[in-house]
Structure prediction request, 203 residues.
Amino acid sequence: MHCHTTLTLWGALMIRPFCARVFLATIIGGAAFSAAAARADDFKIEEGYKSLFNGKDLTGWRLGKTKLDGKTATANKKWHVQEGVIVIDGGGGGDIYTVADFNQDFHLKLEFRAAPRADSGVYIRGPQLQVRDYPRAGPYTKVKFYDKDWNELDITVKDKAALCKCNGEVIEKAFRVGATGGIGLQSEGGKFEFRRLRIKLLD
Prediction:
């Protein structure tokens, strides 16, 4: 028996129960897919910024000297891309870095979500800014605007210092960074997620 897309829903229900089930499943599945796609695509990168993560794979990143272009996971499976998010399961596995270096002043934005007491970090041309479940894992335990869901890091690098904010709140006024190098994400303890990584080079 063949299901025809030209069947009306009522006709399918009355005449071909099997086709009706397939028809309804297709509609429901399509609606769910459309909703998920809408959620994934609702973020628009700001003018002047360049995305560091395409939402699909780890292109533009490396683990050690191994480039991860076109890969959705590292060989050890610790880092992987899931539903538009870079996920690190924690417990080691190596840190990943951008292939590109950013040797001039820049403005970096990204969002992170930490499991309870999870510990990670963002390397800024060498030195590591601690990125954690701040209220429980520190070091910025007194942050006022930390969210258990997604949080935004806003990092402005000028010369060898970075102004670092979490959800608009200053956590480091002049964090010392290297003169040259790229951006890195640390694998430490607990599950961590990153998304919406983008950078704007400053004059």
